[in-house]
Amino acid sequence: MDDAEHTFFVCAKWNPQRIEVEQCVGEALTPDNILHHMLQDEKKWNIVSVMIQKIIETKEEDRITVTYKIAHILGKRGKPFSNIVEAVSMLDPRNVDKYKQLPLSRRTITDRQHELTQNVIKLYKLHKIIQNEDVYFSIASVKSTDKTDSAQVLYFIRALTKDFQCYEELLALGTLTGRTRGADIFENFKELCNKSQLNVSNLVSACTDGAP
Fold first, then answer.
1. pTM > 0.70: yes or no
2. Is the CB of residue 130 less than 8 Å from the CB of residue 159?
3. pLDDT tens digits, residue range 143-168?
4. Domain residues for 96?
5. For a Cys staple, 140 with which of 2, 168, 207, 211, CB 3.0–4.6 Å?
6. What is the pLDDT of residue 201?
7. Is 177 inside any structural domain?
8. What residues contact residue 171 under an 8 Å CB cut-off, 6+ apart?
9. Can you tell me the distance from the alpha carbon of 130 to that of 149, in angstroms, rounded to the nearest whole number?
10. pLDDT tens track for 71-128
11. Last residue in a domain, options 83, 111, 139
12. Are 89 and 143 found together in one domain?
């Protein structure tokens, strides 16, 4: 059961956060001793509070992400709202029951599908704009590693048209396996440019997060 006690004291997903706090307080956290440690001094209070806040925020982000995924599945397959259990089963067939607490009303799914549609339209317009010869742009890339040890690179674009209309958006997500040197990211970016039909000669500047 994914209740508060399981989340903060048992769930393996939060082991890194829990271990960090336990190293500070000197013992394993339990429902019986957590308040005792928090009341000992301000430092321990803050450390435990930050852990709890991070876990709550991450869980809420995960809940929201799942609602978008379910809305996407229903829309892509042309399924009515009544098929929501089927969509959940496709995401996580072994844990269907845990999604029953999610805000999955008809209105929520409709709103999520509308937001996804607007985002697709926005990206389509952006791609049409940046393919023009008179549009200059800059790129910022941020790299992180997912749980499969694959490097994920986010490419953000800022484009300026000849009439000084400015557009800022996430352009694409690139995946790197193996080495993640600056040269590897550059090759990945060139593939992105070819796929998006970007005119590299109009690239004004590029900013990275420090890849060698």
1. no
2. yes
3. 877 666 778 888 888 888 888 888 88
4. 4-111
5. 207
6. 83
7. yes
8. 126, 139, 155, 156, 157, 192, 196
9. 32
10. 777 777 666 655 566 666 666 666 666 666 676 777 777 888 788 777 777 777 777 7
11. 111
12. no
